[in-house]
Amino acid sequence: MKKHLAIATMILMSIIYGCNDSVKEQNSETLQTKQIEATDEITHQHEESDSIEFNNGAKWTVVPEMMAHIRNMESDINGFSETKHTELKDFTQLGSSLQKNIDLLTSNCTMEGKAHDELHKWLLPYIDMVDKLNKSKNNDEALHTFEEIKASYKTLNLYFE
After folding, report:
1. pLDDT at residue number 50
2. Which end is more exposed in the chain, N or C (fewer Cβ atoms within 10 Å of the end residue's Cβ)?
3. Which residues are bridge partners to 160 per DSSP?
């Protein structure tokens, strides 16, 4: 009798734990689905917020102390475009100059509010591009990154003054 009771108890325990594991798996799957949906929603919101907006249809004003560094970099880029630079060391020198101005720009940041937030939407990818230029392994990669940097100034000049 004790033997049957022990077997019945083991079977009952197996069923309980088996069902519990099944519930845990279902809960885990539901939780994972909800996490994926939440991540997708955050990513979608982040992608939308990465788009620079106009200031009620007008350009944003960048404080002169900061705009001076931005214009120095734009001048370096335009000057680089006008000459025939094809060696990696030339791109590296340009990248170094751009990085110095980025450092000055960010250390002198006095902007606040929406204009500041919108400028960051241009500046953060720009900083990444300059970093990529500085880390280029060959001329083709450097040239491609340089062209991206150059194109980013069209966006800057569209939204900021």
Report:
1. 83
2. N
3. 60
Other CB atoms within 10 Å distance of the CB of residue 105: 22
Name the one residue in this structure whose structure tokens are 């279902």.
26
Cβ–Cβ < 8 Å for 98, 54: no
Task: Name the percent of the chain in helix, strand, coil, to the closest 5.
Answer: 80, 0, 15
**Interval 90-117: pLDDT, tens:** 999 999 999 999 999 999 999 999 999 9
Calculate ∠ Cα 143-145-151, nearest 5°: 105
CA atoms of 111 and 45, how far apart (whole Å): 24
What would the pLDDT profile of 53-95 be if each residue is shown by its tens digit?
Answer: 999 999 999 999 999 999 999 999 999 988 877 799 999 999 9
CA distance 134 to 102: 13
Q: What is the pLDDT of residues 22-62, one digit of tens each?
A: 444 555 565 455 545 544 444 444 444 689 999 999 999 99
CA-wise closest residue to 106 among 124, 118, 129, 92: 124
